[in-house]
Amino acid sequence: MTQVNPYQAPVASLELGVEESGELATRGQRFKAVLVDLLTFVGCGLIAGIGVPLQKNGSTMAGTLFVSLAVLAGVAILIYNLVLMSRNGQTIGKRSIGIRIVRQNGDDCGALRIIFMRALPIALLAGLANIVTHTQGAGQLVNLIDVLLIFRASHLCLHDNIADTMVVVA
């Protein structure tokens, strides 16, 4: 019979929970997913970019149409990404690559955790760095440090650590 010491420090497992949730996504898979997500929004910017010169050259109706379509497309993509994130922890890019965001214990991760625990803290930290230093570079450095932490053995970025999330193969 083993006696339990009531004054003993608690013991916690520091494993990432990969066994419960599947294989961790590779750095390359995560990078490709981010590129796909960026390209979807860049497409909206290109559409708007066509409309702005049209407005300046007198074709205000055509220019307004292009800009309006770009804004509507951007909003539609944003809403679709939010729906995908709330259903299965994916964006358009993550879905196309076959990866998803889960909690480090393997549980599903809702859209609110992704937005308020993964994205918002890094954005606030980058914005604060810009304000304190009066430069854009400080915020970009925060974002760079966030993503470069993926090269640790755990393959987790800073936003993953903050939100208790990881990206796995779907």
TrEMBL record:
Entry keyword annotation includes ATP-binding: no
Keywords (A to Z) from UniProt: Cell membrane, Membrane, Transmembrane, Transmembrane helix
Transmembrane segments annotated in the record for this chain: 34-54, 60-84
Pfam families: RDD
Domain RDD stretches: 25-163
Membrane topology category: Multi-pass membrane protein
Listed name of the protein: Putative RDD family membrane protein YckC
Source organism (scientific name): Silvimonas terrae
